[in-house]
Amino acid sequence: MRNLLLAIFSVLLLLTNTIAQDKKFDKHKLSERQVCKGKIVCIGCTLEAQEGGADAQCTLHAKHAQGLLMLDGTLWTFVDNAKGHRVITNEKLRGKEVEILGWKWAKAQYIEVSKYKVKEGTKWVLYDYCKICGFEPGDHKDKDLCAGCSGEGECK
User: Which residues contact 82 (CB under 8 A, 6 or more apart)?
Assistant: First the structure.
């Protein structure tokens, strides 16, 4: 009887632990995305330019990794995944005004990119990553952004 109770307790403990772990690692939802407005900057150069500036050595080590200087003056880093890496490394974005749609990890000051818009003159251009269109117009030779990523329909 004692062994049976011990086995039942072990199974219950294992199930409870499994359920708790599943909850702990739930992925974020699309509805939880936020719009973050600001300008794309080199993180190291921005830190060096501040009073008592950092010795960032961004040319040597970080290769001018880019982040978001938000309108309130805070500096945010992008999660370096498939979508964020393109924003971190695309020199054409540096100095541009952007609206990032993504998830904020406030305690770490990281933003996980879902989509973003870049201000080109007076027009906002939407950039998104999908299997049809890629990140920007021209990425797929003669094809531009698909209808979904250009805001005119859905990705197919």
Answer: 129
* pLDDT-flagged residues of the chain (< 70): 1-26, 128-156
Rounded Cα distance, 111 and 77, in Å: 6
Pair of tokens at residue 15: 């199930």
Q: Give the type of residue at 4.
A: L
Chain Cα centroid distance, residue 30:
13
Do residues 130 and 57 both lie within one domain? no
Closest of 73, 84, 76 to residue 43, by C-alpha = 76
Which residue, among 148, 74, 73, has the nearest Cα to 109 in the 3D structure?
74
Helices (H), the chain: 2-24, 43-49, 82-89
Q: Which domain holds residue 133?
A: 121-156
Q: Look up the pTM and report it.
A: 0.68
Measured between alpha carbons, how far is 24 from 134 in angstroms, rounded to an integer? 32
Quote the number of domains for the chain: 2
